[in-house]
Each structure stands twice: as structure tokens, then as C-alpha cells.
Amino acid sequence: MLNSSNKERSMGKKILIVDDELDLLKVTLLRLKKTGYEVFGGVDGQEALNLARQIIPDLIILDVYLPVINGDDVAKRLKKDDELKHIPIILISANPMTLDERVMECGADGYLAKPYEHDELIGMVKKVLGQDRGARMYKNIIPG
Questions:
Q1: pLDDT value at position 2?
Q2: Is the distance from CB of 106 to CB of 115 less than 8 angstroms?
Q3: Structural domain boundaries in the chain
Q4: Options 2.60.40.10, 1.10.3210.10, 3.40.50.300, 3.40.50.2300; which CATH number does 2-128 get?
Q5: Which of 97, 58, 91, 95 is nearest to 74 (CA)?
Q6: Considering only CA atoms, which of 95, 84, 88 is closest in space to residue 125?
Q7: Which residue in 20, 34, 38, 71 has the most C-beta neighbors within 10 A?
Q8: Could you read off the pLDDT of 90-141 as tens digits, one per residue?
């Protein structure tokens, strides 16, 4: 597990990012941390479930193709859990062809196709967390 320990940053919202591409995970954690979020990282589906229960994040960014348990299966389990079902989930995948369908099936709140731009990620995070009400609506955010 990777996490931020900077007290200043811990005042922000908690975001769990789960991706088995370690380099991408580290870059995403760093970018979100620099934006002021408290970040946590995992590399497989089981770790995603364990960390979600442990830290109760404000947002989960979840790769679809993960070892142990696929990301969309993790999302389904989280959405069935009374303590965790309120947490918004953004799916990420290098295969955007099936993302619309997967998001609808698992109850996720939006998606990003890899590779994504830093500004696109931050914009979507802020929009999903309700921190950027004036931003344009992203086509890949599923209305609640």
C-alpha cells in the first residue's frame, strides 16, 4: 500500500487508486497528492476491497483489468456493501470499447480511457467529488 503522509494533504479528500501498472499508479498518486488529495494505492482487486473497507475513501479510481479480482467485479462488490456503496467509482482501462457497458453493469460513476491527460483526470475527480460545479459535464460521467 502506498499513501501520503503529509499532514497538510491529509486535510483533503481521500482517494484510492488501484492499478496493476505500477509506474502509472505512482504517477497518478503523485499528481493527485500534489493537487491536495490524500492518496492510497493498490495493485489488485482484493487489495482494493481491503483498502476500501479500511480507509473508506471519498473516491475510488479502479483499473478494469486487475489481478485476483477484475475492477468491475470489485465495483459490483463495493456497490452491494451498505457501508461502501456511497463511494463514487471511476473505472479506467486501455480498452475503451467496453467501458460504457462495464460502467453501467457494475454501477460505477464514470470512466477514463488510458492513456489519459493529467488535466482530464483532475477535472473528472473534481466533478465526481462535487468540487468543480462550474466545470463542463464530462461525457464519461454517468448521471446519478
A1: 54
A2: no
A3: 2-128
A4: 3.40.50.2300
A5: 91
A6: 88
A7: 71
A8: 999 988 777 888 888 999 998 999 888 989 999 999 989 987 654 444 445 5
Bin 39: left if φ > 0, else alpha if -120 < ψ < 50, else beta: beta
Residue carrying C-alpha cell 463542463: 136
Q: How far is residue 46's CA from residue 42's CA, in Å, rounded to a whole number?
A: 9
Segments in 1-143 forming alpha helices (H): 22-34, 45-55, 71-80, 99-106, 118-128
pLDDT for 3 equals 52
pLDDT in tens, 55-99: 999 999 999 999 999 999 999 999 999 999 999 999 999 887 778
The DSSP secondary-structure symbol of 117 reads: -
